[in-house]
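Chapter review: from sequence to fold.
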Amino acid sequence: MNLTKKINAVYKKFGVKITAAEDDRSVILNGECDDWQNIVKIGKMFADKKSGKHIVNDIRLKGYEEKPPFLPAVNDKSLDGTAWDVVVIGGGISGCSVARELSKYKLKILLVEKHSDVARGASGANDGMVHAGIDLKHKCKKLYYVTRGNAMYADVCRDLGVEFERKGQYVVFSSRFIKFCGRSYLMRAKKHNIPNVSVISKKEICKAEPTVKDYAVGALKIASTGAVSPYKLTIAYAENAVQNGAAVSLNTAVLSMEHTDCEILKIFTNRGVISAECIINCAGVFADKVAQMAGDRYFSIHPRKGVDLLMDSKGKGLPDNAISLSPTFKTIKQNKNTKGGGIVKTVDGNILLGPNAREIPDREDVTTESRDVNEVFNKQLDCCPSMQRSNIIAYFAGVRAPTYEEDFIIERSAKVKNLIHVAGIQSPGLTAAPAFSVDVAEMAAELLKSRGKNVELNADFNPKRVAPVDIKSLTENELNELIKSNPDYGKMICRCEQVSLGEIKQAINNPLGVATIDGVKRRVRAGMGRCQGGFCMPNILKTIADELNADISQVQKADYGSNVVVGEIKRI
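The token string follows.
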């Protein structure tokens, strides 16, 4: 790589003086710039697939002071002095799926997550689409794991008791020229072994999805696309891991590490000092920070925020399928590193719009702004003109964790002999997780064997997780029999989402020990309807307090310090 030539190109384009150096794995950039978007663009200028080198972008944003990360308000010695075969850092879909696959072996496994529940980052804030991989243009780890993972989804979700639908996806053509160009997707699908991809006529798409009839001339039908609840799947992976002997420590942050040039010796957390024969870095937007703690920083994460809009499932003018507009040359140029978002029908019956993509310097900025809401809605309005803005009932943001190479990093460290990286797992990481978690577990087993550990299969491993009761899915006779055996299932608490007291108690008494308002919400959807918890919140609050035998003021919304009730106003 001609670094001098690229440095000069940066100065010519942005007027910014930087330095660049390289070693056997990375190109390291330094300097200062007053525009974050330009910092990201500069990093991308040095990304070169042919070189195989990663980018470490240390160009500073002028006048910006990096915010300290969220840390749990818990400090104790509950883990102090414990030794583990494997420690997994991060409770997103990556960490939880890896922990579950590792539980197939007879090992001491610990997953640590700094929040009060799993799936609190990008894994809990995305549209839940199980991608086919049609948008991935070149051979890369993303494509390899997405196509494998997609094929595994039905079996994985059946085993874990998680709802999964493979209803397909339509990429709608708005002109004959775009339809003609869209046929190139058929060649790509064949090349990448993506099954059941076809171009359908105007008549066929309008019959399948009448909301596009005013402009559609045809569509690309991708039958293998599916939908899953991302947070429910992550929770299910974690619960099945615990049921098979793994330990999950929530409210546990990795603060630093003690290491030699080639090995991690100790991991310092807010709950004590621990050690492990194998450490797996699944830390999402903080994966490069964890790598730095281990003395193995050879890549950078540049946070990319995306906002999604949640539509009322009973709203008018909404589509019944996952649809998006086919990209044009203009939109492809504008959105090089995102699929551009779309309209997704969730497994729970809601419609999600988005996400957009905005590069940000703050790794935990999940705020939403009116410009993002307007951008997402107006863009998807072109795809479905009959949608009404009044049907928006909530919006949320998630922060993706891309590398500058825009590919997954799934590999044993070349420098630290007891470290494995699972980094850069951005969309479509949810789709890829069932596949790469199998490979990562095998990597860990081989690493442990190389360190003299006798690694045996867990003869008691049970891949099946019993699905929680969902009264909406029961027949009238089934529901009546259930209520006879437990009257709590006949007491409706959340009217919007039809969630009973029995389901809420079941959610509180989960294998991970999560008993928060948001924990209940993410397990049974209580509070996710039109009123967003306005009616059911007090009853959920009281139920949690009763189940925990605690005062209502001790109940948290999510993390420690998020008390819902903080004091008395008056007493009768």
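Two observations follow directly from the output. The chain has 16 helices and 25 strands. The chain has a mean pLDDT of 95.
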